[in-house]
Write a structure and sequence with these properties.
About 25% of the residues lie in helices and about 40% in strands. A 5-stranded antiparallel beta sheet has the order 1-3-4-5-2.
Length: about 140
């Protein structure tokens, strides 16, 4: 990993709907990827991501590692804390942790480490553009 030059940090909250659960009544394991994706989108900014796409720049997941700790269930609220470290390299490193509030304390549900790669309009890896670094630093 290249030496980080900055990071984006944020927290997002998502209700757990019945449709998010499986036969056990717990959140289906793959849905945590959706919660994490939504949290990253909120931190970076949906309109900013759209403007990058229009400029021929976008991010894709190149690696993902999840560790499941505790099941969330229908009616819970998932709290996702995200830290995105970036440098001039194509890769952005995301540490994401999903929690639920049990009423007494926060319980860690899933820990994720996700690597994103910056691509151009031809879907080739590129260094993180200076304009994106400046926008992240102003964030």
């Amino acid at each position: 990993m290249a030496r980080p030059i900055g990071e984006l940090v944020g927290e997002s909250r998502f209700p757990v709907y019945y449709e998010d659960t499986d036969l056990s009544g717990f959140v289906y394991h793959a849905n945590y990827l959706k919660y994490f994706e939504r949290a990253r989108e909120q931190i970076i900014g949906i309109s900013f991501l759209k403007s990058l796409w229009d400029q021929g720049v976008h991010f894709v997941v190149s690696e993902c590692q999840l560790k499941y700790r505790f099941p969330a269930k229908h009616g819970d609220e998932i709290i996702v804390r995200t830290q995105v470290s970036y440098s001039q390299s194509p890769a952005l490193y995301c540490q994401q942790i999903a929690y639920v509030n049990t009423g007494k304390q926060e319980q860690t549900v899933v820990e994720g480490q996700i690597t994103l790669v910056t691509l151009n309009a031809k879907h080739k890896p590129i260094r993180l553009p200076e304009s994106v670094i400046q926008a992240f630093q102003a964030h």
